[in-house]
Write a structure and sequence with these properties.
2 copies of one chain form a homodimer. By secondary structure, chain A is of the alpha/beta class. The first copy, chain A, has helices at residues 16-19, 27-37, 52-65, 83-90, 99-108, 116-120, 153-163, 188-197, 225-240, and strands at 7-14, 40-48, 68-72, 95-97, 123-125, 129-131, 140-143, 146-149, 174-180, 202-208, 215-222, 246-248. β2 (40-48) of chain A pairs antiparallel with β2 of chain B.
Chain lengths: 252, 252
């Protein structure tokens, strides 16, 4: 389901291991790409520590600012997994052991292996809805507009793919990308002119540096595809008028 | 220079290309690692779009909350590079063409190549201090406690290494990591016991999944090295008592 409206999302990455530099987040680019395909734009992401009050404050603030909030991390079986309780408190409620989640986990583990730590993963906020985890079973949940997901990329990304059909997107922002083999400062006037001439089209320039092959990728983004194509033709003509070689596609 | 105090930092990643999913940030883990080595802890990171008011609000809020703020992105030569003006406004001032920056850039470019777009990179806020860029010359700047850096990882990271000696760190948080070849839920009681028995030591457990080699890395972190070593001995003894095989080091 889509509409013409702008639909926004925020992503809260919960985890000391990201803030300490131990682990590099790989979920933001995945989530932003998938949401973008159905017309939901990620307008902010925050990386915060495993600190209850910080989680509560961040969830409350962002859930009031955007249409959809997603969190990753902190819903596992150990003492440092505090996300479920913190998100419950952000909504003025508490967690309970959800019978449906218990049944899922009991069926998943071999007899005798559903221990107390694993049972903790069945605790979700009251009034929340379970979110399917096709990789390791332990569910996430949705409460209000907040979707609470695992942190491990393989699990998080599978959960996103499961829940996407249930979201309502807006206008899909499409992009067109070309690359030139010169620095961005040499084409700055052309890009500014294109941005000014095409309302609603965002013109980004991203220099890249590789041995023997530096250049600039020019990314045009907008929800109005006809305007987007006009902008692409415009920037192409302006660069060709200067005999600048143009490659199609994105180079990073 | 270091002290025993906790010294905190926040990182603001400015760029539509990160929020759209086009580009995956690689600077947070680098910055967090380098700052950690000198006793500065990154306590929050935010990814925000190239929107002036959002940059102003985020810089003002975070610069009041932490000891050091770092930004990446948006200081290049094109129309979408708005960070310098926005940060100036966050401090109630404006940008001007800094003669020292002009001189650096004039010396860097061949005769006739220091065009208007490149000249834009000499604009920094009044009352700011230039930050050296050993890769591509165009300087960053510091104003108040905010350090404004390039977004391209190679440039950003070289700028960080240049400015690090000028920062005042606090207590260095060290870490010790061991890995077990079983899931984290099977050792949850031991880890909770270790966290409770060793004040000031943060015990994190990070499951990893690889074909034929899943397991859990246990990361102990704390500024008190003696307590850290006691916690390491404690968790090791508890796992050995259960005949659990222990690997040294981190597995991801």
């Amino acid at each position: 389901m889509t509409s013409d409206q702008r639909v926004t999302a925020a992503f809260i990455i919960i985890g000391n291991e990201i803030l300490s530099g131990r682990t590099q987040d790989a979920n933001l680019s995945f989530l932003a790409g998938r949401l973008g395909e159905i017309g939901i734009q990620v307008v902010e992401a925050r990386v915060i520590p495993d600190v209850e009050q910080t989680i509560i404050d961040t969830v409350q603030r962002l859930s009031a600012q955007v249409d959809y909030v997603f969190t990753s991390g902190g819903i596992g079986p150990t003492h440092d997994d505090i996300t479920a309780d913190a998100v419950a408190k952000a909504f003025g409620t508490e967690t309970f052991e959800d019978p449906e989640a218990v049944a899922l986990l009991e069926a998943h583990y071999a007899a005798g292996e559903f221990n107390a730590a694993r049972r903790k993963m069945a605790r979700v906020p009251r009034s929340s809805t379970l979110l399917a985890n096709p990789v390791s079973t332990a569910p996430g949940f949705r409460i209000g507009n907040v979707h609470v997901l695992a942190g491990v990329p393989k699990i998080m990304q599978a959960m996103v793919d499961m829940l996407l059909p249930g979201l309502t997107g807006g206008a899909v922002v499409e992009s067109r990308t070309i690359t030139v083999l010169i620095g961005e400062s040499l084409i700055a006037p052309e890009m500014a002119a294109v941005e000014n001439a095409h309302p609603g089209i965002d013109v980004g320039s991203y220099p890249y540096f590789k041995p023997g092959a530096s250049g600039t990728s020019i990314v045009l983004r907008g929800a109005d595809v006809e305007e987007l194509e006009r902008a692409l033709a415009d920037v192409t003509a302006r660069l060709e008028a200067r005999d600048i070689e143009i490659w199609t596609g994105d180079h990073k």
